[in-house]
Amino acid sequence: MITSVLVANRGEIARRVFRTARDLGIATVAVYSDADADSPHVADADSAVRLPGNTPAETYLRADLVIQAARDAGADAIHPGYGFLSENAEFARAVIDAGLIWIGPPVESIERMGSKIESKELMAAAGVPVLSNMDPDAVTEFPVLVKASAGGGGRGMRIVRSQAELAGAVEGARSEAGSAFGDSTVFIEPYLETGRHIEVQVMADRHGTVWAVGERECSIQRRHQKVIEEAPSPLVERTEGMRERLFDAARKAAAAIGYEGAGTVEFLADESGRFFFLEMNTRLQVEHPVTECVTGLDLVALQLSIAEGAPLGPEPPVSRGHAIEVRLYAEDPAANWLPQSGALHRFEISALVSFANPPGSGIRVDSGVVSGSLVGVHYDPMLAKVISWAPDRTSAARSLSGALLRAQVHGVRTNRDLLVRVLRHPAFLAGDTDTAFFDRHGLDLLAAPIADKDAESLSALAAAITDTEANRAAAKVQGRIPAGWRNVVSQPQVKRFESASGEHEVRYRITRDGLSGVEGVRLLASSPTRVELEVAGVRRVFDVARYPGIACVDSAFGSVTLTVPPRFDDPADHVAPGSLLAPMPGTVIRVAAEAGQRVDAGQPLLWLEAMKMEHRIDAPVAGVVSELTVSPGDQVDVGRVLAVVVEES
Known about the structure:
Layout: E1 4-7, H1 11-23, E2 27-32, H2 40-44, E3 47-50, H3 63-73, E4 77-79, H4 89-97, E5 101-102, H5 107-114, H6 116-125, E6 144-148, E7 157-160, H7 163-181, E8 186-190, E9 196-204, E10 210-222, E11 225-231, H8 234-238, H9 242-256, E12 261-269, E13 275-281, H10 288-295, H11 299-307, E14 322-329, E15 331-332, E16 338-339, E17 342-343, E18 346-348, E19 353-354, E20 362-367, E21 374-375, E22 382-390, H12 393-406, E23 408-410, H13 416-423, H14 426-429, H15 437-441, H16 443-446, H17 453-474, E24 493-499, E25 502-511, E26 514-516, E27 521-526, E28 530-535, E29 538-547, E30 550-555, E31 558-563, E32 579-581, E33 586-591, E34 598-599, E35 604-610, E36 613-618, E37 623-628, E38 635-636, E39 641-647
Helix pairs in contact: 4-5, 12-13
């Protein structure tokens, strides 16, 4: 019997496993890097062991350190979570050899599915439909997909549309795969421009029972990484006989490798209901909560019981209702999904439960962060998974979009507004989702802020008024005198802010007759944190939070972040024309130019690695590289000058 479990992971998934372990009376052990010393998952555990260093390679990917941590803390089992070492057969073998219980499938199952190349051959032999692999030297038809043989999460993947792009794509995929998974092997397969990503959750015990626990659809993706997941699949729901064929293929896949525990068989499907095997993830998936919500199961509890040798029942429970999960990321979708880092000043999402199924219709939040957390550059930028369950799909989407819109997420830019727009989009509500959703419906439109320019202007007014209220509340003398008060009126109060749509200059006065200078707006009430305005006869409430350099305004119009510009320019902030600045902290991994070289607009100059992804820095114009200030291996901070390109006249 398991008495103490170490989770060889961090963040949200570690907290998720700890919640179930606590419910079962099992002691919990966390491991943490130096960057994660203040992470919520560390505080959630009964005990924690430091892994010296910051990067995954120094910490969470060190099997020897993780196993020693389990010994030191007295754990008798290790749960790998997802990512990191979760699908590493050598790690699983080392855990077992150390006399610990491995909460996962047999080592041989991981090995057979660890290589996407070999796993496809195995699945074809088992009668599961597959897409054929292609020899890089024999590729003549495009587009194709270059894909890492190990790992997942969209890393080590490149779409190639021409022969000229192939060599560079293979090199980039190998580099990213080697960094993320320690294995740079890649392969090539035909790329389907549109398709449905459908996966089947399987559970298998050591007594020969294999459950197909329902399917999930994960078609809305960015960079081949899932953004929205749901159960059941709209495509499967409306395609006669597809669910039975999917479940049969998934059970065949699990049986072919003698599988035990939780796993996911992933397929790419077309609108007719045909599907092809993509891969099998020999671990718990990020999106497992949607399956839990529709089945009522606790998949982590099942993992633990299977690891202890308990049998499954003859059949899984019947699914009910509909669940949708969104991944809330610290990223800027409008800037090519650029990851964000910094202080998360406030993180509040109204939910019935965390890390558990809601009792009836409602919202569940599985989060790796809390208010005050620091979003760093070493790990994936996912902040939380927000999940809704309702009796039907439309209700689930409506409930989830409302919860996101009301959430207070201050301090880093997120994909929240994009998620709301997708959940409310007619195509999504009609179930017309595929892997080309963002391309088809326009990322620029979907990534646009929910709050329009008029809403930003009202938010700026609210921020100005609360700032005035805060100043008066903090005044040590004459605090009861209204701000800007004059015996003889001279000029209005003036405050300036910058937002996503540009600069807002707020001019107003507050007199004994109320707010003046803003047409069509009446001030009803104000405090240092809240303003009530009557706009065109409608009462509107604005909650305002101020942090160094920014003001965050939440209202029914949407969330608005306002930057407070400095009163005076700092000469140190000025950079030479043509300067390319680091968009985020990271590591320079490759340089493809040198000082004095002539480059074309869009030509790659260098690559940065941050948050487990590569980011290419291109020449903005045709010209000459007058300066190149970095070399491979350099650590750079956001805003650092990487290179200067002087435009040709």
